[in-house]
């Protein structure tokens, strides 16, 4: 999700999603954006368990 989109951020947070990662300078057309990755864990799992499995979101 692009960090400038506060409406989207509020929506995903209201659905139980949490920020796990932020990436700066992601090119989208002519513009570079900061994006965040948000996840919602499955029943019985935790964010650390997710991060153990998905290397790209550890930073």
UniProtKB/TrEMBL annotation:
This is Acetyltransferase. It comes from the Bacteria.
